[in-house]
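Hey team,

Sharing the tetrahydrofolate synthase run so nobody has to redo it. Sequence (438 residues) first:
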Amino acid sequence: MAEAVKFLENYIPAPEKKYPGDLGLKRMQKLVELLGNPQLKYKTIHVGGTSGKGSTATMIASILGQKYKTGLHTSPHLERINERISIFSRAPHNRENEISDVEFIGLLNEIKTTIWKMEKSELGPPSYFEIVTAMAFLYFEKRKTDFAVIEVGLGGRFDATNVIKPIVSVITNIGLDHTEILGETVEEIAQDKAGIIKRGIKVVVGTDQPSVKKIILQKSLKENAKVFLMNRDFKIDTRKISSDGSVFHYIGKNNYYNLRINLLGRHQIDNAAVAIKVTEAVGGLTESDIRSGLTKAKIAGRLEIISQKPLIILDGAHNPDKMKALVGAIQEIWPERKVIVVLAIKNDKNATEMIDILKPLAQKFILTGYRVVMDQGEIVSYDTDDLAALMGQKRKVIIINDPLKAYDEAVNKTAGKDLILATGSLYLLGLIQKKINS
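Structure output:
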């Protein structure tokens, strides 16, 4: 696999070409056309939004997988690139249904000729992300999936995934993230994300923001798409939130009582409701399918408990909205625990607001950093001294630049009832997960 990843890294776009807009979408359209448009050989569900789209996509795939063979394409990955491409078929989400190393290498070798052909075209070579997305489409065709759930990479309108023709598009919510690319306001970002709404399809919306709903409804009306809104067409009644998961009632086309999810936090109930509405829109699923799919759904790095003694939680919250959901969940589920936060934040994120949200929760901060290579190139965290400057004078702060040593410090120095939280970035979590699993 190392050689396969190294090959893909040759297709990391140059900084000035990272977000090529319409050109990138045209390039992706040409790439899948040369591969025979595999993304049109099965039914697709397109999942976009600022927060919650990975969890929502996973729950949709898990429910559909109780009856249908269902593909799932998400990004980024934590440890292994294989995580991006999975098949659900009456099995919980685990490595057994991720694409194997052999399958991944075989697929990549199969499309190399097409990649090289693209290099010589006026559109230029496909990017790392475009190649992996095309591989996912091709893999789902080869595995004869009935459905594929496709998570948007970034934005919506010009995203490489927007070559699909979904039967349902999903917009979970809209927040201020990637503002340098998508726009400075939630309304501008909503316009971009509404680009996944296609003619005549169904649209499920998880947000209650009036200005965002207005934009989505206008786009849906223009495309003659049928819209289902949270708290208008479906809603939830939360019954229980605990460290074991949540119990809630769903009120919609059908009513389901005392549903259970093992994903933690109040925000995951909202995501589950959106997933249920999507599967209702698809049709053909029983209440048993929905219950089973929800309880089996797992997703790494989202309020993930990796140890009970000491209590260690990994969460990849990397924008203010996600951080609010995380802090709210910990305060609700573990109100008596002292929290030690291991923190690293990508250097283009709103660190000031994220830290302000964390301050009331954290007894102590251990600040760290990272430098990793992913599909968009080298990803670098904020300098730890810069993060420390945002903390204020009265905050207990330790700086350990090596993320693995920072994690060890938290584990080794914690008291029995403390809670260790590693957060701020999925890339930090990936490094910690690799350490744990090795």
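The mean pLDDT is 93.

Ping me if you want the raw files.
A.
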